[in-house]
Amino acid sequence: MAQTQVRLGGLLLQHQYGEIVENVGTFLAAKGSFPLKDIADGTKLGMNEVKKALCVLIQHNMMDFERNRRGLLEYTIHINKVLHITRYPRYIYCAKTLYGDVGEFLVEELLSHGQMMMSQVCRRVSERITQALEEGQSVDEFQVRKTFVDLVKTHFLQRVAAPPSDSGDKTDAETELQVKEKEMFLIPPAMDVDYSKVNPSVSSSGKRKREDGEEGDKVAKRPRSTSPLSDEKNEDAPDKGVYWHVNFTRFHQFFRDQAVLSAVNSKMDRYACEIVRTMLRISEKTTVPLAPTTQPMSSHEIFQNLPSELDLSRSTLGEYLTLLAEDKTEIVNKAGESGGGMYILNMQKALQTLCKASIESVVQERFGSKCSRIFRLLLMKRHLEQKQVEDMAMIPAKEAKELLYKLFSENFVTMQEIPKTPDHAPSRTFYLFGINIHQVSRMLLDRCYKAMGNLISRREHENTENRRLLEKSQRVDAIAASLQSSGADTTQMSEVEEMITPPERQQLNKLKHDINKLEQSELQLDETIFLLESYLPGSEAMVMY
Amino acid sequence: MGGRGRGRGRGKPLSFDIETLGFQNRKELPQSKDEPPPLYPPLEFKPVPLQEGEEANYLLALKQEFRGSMRESPYFIKPQSTKKDIERYSDKYQLNGQNKGQGLGWTPNWNTFPKELRIREKKPKRLKLSVKPSLAGTKLKAKGQKGDTKEAENKLKRILQAEEEGDEDDDEDEEEKKKKEAEGEEEEEEEFYDDEDIEEGTDYALSYFDNGEDYLDADDDALEDGPVY
């Protein structure tokens, strides 16, 4: 796994931040944490280059540093954050769907700069929008700020936690980090949209108080101690020292919820989907993000929070809830009878179901429907002997054997030996075939990383192969554009266009088509990666079948 | 039992009796493979077509735009220009335009960034460089007196700090020279002789830091030869 991750991470870094960053990144990803000097030695790069690369990585929140026992700073790269680069377009698109163009630009700016001050981002975004709009129109920076505050309120953006500072001793540094954690979503007062009227900093801290009860009193005390500090900073610049970055976890939570909702929608219907959506919204306040299961909520509570335009009667809701709870996807579980029935959402189970479904479709597409039948059979029955598989899948013995072994050799199916006698003689041993979903998803994830790496390097290969052609077409385009702006007539224009010969144009079109296809695959592969990734980290405790 | 007996063990590559596995004779065994699997195995099943639609297209456009803009961003660190075959006159001006290799091109929030990552500004570099020539000089002159040269160097630094005033173009040159330093002392000295600016600049310092050996023969001839060579 790690190897393919490092490879993919390296490729991504290379395309995003250049070769030097790639060298430093892969070195650290492969070897672990190192102080500055060792990185320079290990990568055989100049000191300044390494410094620059480290700065870039820290700026984009892909790196942590920590003082080791000898007092040297050690740098650690987070390879999974590097891998998020493939998901950047999705974050941006998500912000667009939720918060419109302003949200899109805000997230895009933050992603391309890693971390920024609120005033900076808002200024840049409003400039960009003003440029995009026609003359005379301009967008209010106030509006941009408002969207920014909205994004922070919904936790899509968060503050950059200040890492332990160089000078401070250890205990001091740790407390500093904690303080930051509490005010992760606090808008600096000076940047607030309307400070006197709505105070999002207060409301968001109040929200957090509800979220984690035992921390509640600490949070309540905190603002008093931190506010003079932030006031102090306000004096030289509106929000000096307060940097923001994109909260990937929140986006992932959103993606996860969307995936589950669309699954419910296609499995049952719109109403069931809306009910689950309501449950998710209720649980946002009571459950910590990315928890495997939500706190129980009563059907009464769900009913009260249902959107009014849905027009669902109470008894129908009850029916839907029983239906959802009895469904074998186990997304909704019944937790008790009180309050008209207590229900919880089991997100981990939901993810597992989604994961299973996508693994099944992988088997179907790779090995055909007969293999898929065997696979589903094994999933259902858990353990089967070869003979049983042949019988139950209703496939001729010889063929079934072949297909089963194929799945086995491709590691989709595992085998368990149960010897009847202690000598493990093959004739007196049961061979039970089964499926370990956890292991299969890990393997698939590894393959996805590999495939992603291959896609990127193929794209790069195509680009280098046709570099001359691409450069030529760029030049011709530039000439054509300048001619057009200077008001040239059509004959001149066509003359310029003829500089690219028909076969060349054909080749260009093909190249463009190929690259589009490759990039499209990257994006769609990332969806699978996301699903597998979000299923895997929480399920170490999964028992082996 | 299998391979241990001399008679039976010979001629058989397998060390166990294949009959225990249920095979009658060796011909039934699958052939062992002596070549790697093909690089592109034949596709049994065609891959499903990619999803299409407005969302997919928009995502694609976003991705391409983002990828394109990252290339131009200051975070994209271009590698130092690859080793030049010859030094061209035009290089100097291209370097000026791009401001290559100098600084980050963006300012990190130094409150949260480790201090050791700060790239030192031009000043200390320039100082070190301008000292260099005199170093070479004193080295030739007073071989074996390392301690003295160190001291002289320090003094030189102090004095030059007050004196040094180079314009931007000089900096670029020196920047390049910095790189070449690693290549060896020999080249270093040659460079130094080539560049008149620096020689003039340090001339004063050199004669000033005459370590006293010329004290006795202070006639004109000796001065013309210079203490350096």
Quaternary structure of the protein: heterodimer
By CATH, the architecture of the largest domain in chain A is named Orthogonal Bundle
Give the class of chain B from helix and strand content and strand pairing: mainly alpha
For the CA atoms, what is the radius of gyration of chain B? 35 Å
Quote the average pLDDT of chain A: 81
For the largest beta-sheet of chain A, the strand count, sense and barrel status come to: 3 strands, antiparallel
Distance linking N and C termini of chain B: 88 Å
Q: Show unreliable segments of chain B.
A: 1-5, 7-11, 95-101, 122-132, 134-145, 166-172, 179-202
Description:
The complex is a heterodimer of chains A (545) and B (229). In chain A, a hairpin with a 5-residue loop joins strand 8 and strand 9. Chain A has 23 helices and twelve strands. In chain A, the strands form four sheets. Chain A has a three-stranded antiparallel β-sheet. A three-stranded antiparallel β-sheet of chain A has the order 4-6-5. Chain A has a three-stranded antiparallel β-sheet with strand order 7-9-8. The longest helix of chain A has 34 residues. In chain A, helix 16 runs antiparallel to helix 17 and helix 18 crosses helix 19. Chain A folds into five domains: 76 residues, Orthogonal Bundle (Arc Repressor Mutant, subunit A), CATH 1.10.10.10; 159 residues, Winged helix-like DNA-binding domain superfamily/Winged helix DNA-binding domain (Arc Repressor Mutant, subunit A), CATH 1.10.10; 93 residues, Arc Repressor Mutant, subunit A (Orthogonal Bundle), CATH 1.10.10; 86 residues, Arc Repressor Mutant, subunit A (Orthogonal Bundle), CATH 1.10.10; 97 residues. With 545 residues, chain A is mainly alpha-helical. Chain B is mostly helical and 229 residues long. Chain B has a domain of 77 residues. The N terminus of chain B is likely disordered.
